[in-house]
Design brief:
Elements: H1 2-10, E1 15-16, H2 28-52, E2 55-56, H3 61-68, E3 82-83, E4 88-90, E5 105-106, E6 110-111, H4 116-122, H5 130-133, H6 146-153, H7 161-181, H8 185-198
Parallel strand pairs: 1-2
Antiparallel strand pairs: 3-4, 4-5, 5-6
Helix pairs in contact: 2-7
The chain binds iron/sulfur cluster (SF4).
Residues 131-132, 135, 137-138, 141, 143-144, 159, 164, 167-168 line the site of iron/sulfur cluster.
């Protein structure tokens, strides 16, 4: 990972973003391995940022969620849509798969604002998910993938436990990074830019 970060720095990248698979695929062993890698990379950013000014935007999302939070658990159907090859509109590409309850319209006719899923997603609020409402990292959680929850647990409203574990690791890492660099002007400028880019 460090080699990759140095490569980005060498080609002039200031901000890049990684993303984990938010699926029900994380064993305890893999979660522990992920935590070790994330902690190492956070220590790397804390030490290297003042010298090279490069940051992983993904690791800043818990901060952004904490202070500028979206209400939704996942952007599907609000700031994100998926369109099938025949023009049908779904909340995101992962909902395209003969999941007719999630069809939200067609590009020829536009969005069907009377569809139940349109209303469900428009009013989706993390505060209405019992497990999230009582979670210690809420607000500040990066949320989950509703399509993945639907696939593995049969409901778009059920957080996948192993993804919650990953979210908690990211949350702690993000705050460690923020608390270490919040007095650095360049770091705070990048945060402001990310907030600008993420406010849709
Ligand atoms: S970690 Fe899981 S339970 Fe907690 S807020 Fe995030 S998705 Fe909800």
């Amino acid at each position: 990972m460090h080699d990759t970060i140095h490569y980005f720095k060498d080609i002039g990248v200031e901000v890049f973003s990684t993303c984990i698979a938010r699926d029900n695929i994380w064993s305890n062993e893999k979660i522990n391995e992920y935590e070790k890698i994330i902690n190492e990379s956070i220590d790397f950013y804390i030490e290297e940022f003042p010298k090279c000014g490069i940051i992983n935007k993904y690791m800043m999302f818990p901060i952004i969620e904490r202070y500028y939070r979206r209400n939704n658990f996942c952007p599907a159907g609000t700031t994100l849509l998926g369109v099938s090859t025949n023009g049908d509109i779904y909340p995101c590409a992962r909902f395209i798969n003969n999941r007719s309850p999630y069809k939200m319209g067609n590009i020829k006719d536009g969005m069907n604002i009377n569809s139940p899923i349109y209303h469900t997603l428009k009013n989706m609020n993390i505060d209405n998910i019992t497990k999230c409402k009582n979670c210690p990292i809420h607000p500040g959680c990066m949320g989950q993938c509703m399509a993945s929850s639907y696939e593995s647990l049969g409901s778009i409203f059920k957080p996948i436990e192993c993804v919650c574990e990953i979210n908690k690791i990211n949350y702690n890492a993000s705050f460690k990074l923020y608390n270490s660099l919040k007095n650095n002007e360049d770091f705070m400028r990048i945060i402001s830019n990310i907030i600008g880019l993420s406010s849709t």
